[in-house]
Amino acid sequence: xxMAPAAERERSRSPPADAKPExxxxxxxxxxxxxxxxxxLPKPGESVTAPFTYQGDEVxxxxxxxxxxxxxxxxxxxxxxxxxxxxxxxGIQSERCYFGCDFVRRDCAVTNGRGKGFNLDDNGFQxxxxxxxxxxYVNNEKTVSDYxxxxxxxxxxxxxxxxxxxxxxxxxxxxxxxxxxxxxGGNAIQGPAFVVHNDYSSTSAPRRLRDLATPPKLN
Length: 219
Fold this sequence. Notes:
Layout: E1 2-3, H1 6-12, E2 24-27, E3 29-30, E4 47-55, E5 70-71, E6 83-85, E7 91-93, E8 98-99, E9 103-111, H2 120-123, H3 140-159, H4 174-178, H5 204-212
């Protein structure tokens, strides 16, 4: 999916009649799937309006980690043990888990990006077909031995890179996360991510590479 420019989003915005006013300050409230505004995937060329959860304007941001905003992961690799259930099924974050956050929901236009010719050189991302046989992602050994090489070959083919290493993945499933299922090996299955985020900063990316060169830790 692609995000329309801010001005275009304002012109094309057409939230449902019962939509809540935006922006909505959520503080440390984590949205349930229903409250997050699950919407059908649009057909090619169509757009939908859907709520996205961002950090508020007062939250420090930048390419380098500030140490003022973050999350504390548990031993299984997830934030699950820090959650409690709030009113109407909305999860409430414990302060032990997230710190320095101010969640704000904003309605945005979302357009189906398939068939629009996006490419890595001009757009920084590319949508490609990758037809593979079914993989049991709960089977960690099979995922690493079978799926990792497929992903590496795909990245090589699309970028021209000579060497590609896959080093980590998350398994996300709403139903399995609620049932507290784990992948073979003990890592927790995580639920859908309902906050717009980037996994790495200019600080954490090189640090992660250095961590991979050290013996495995608890998490």
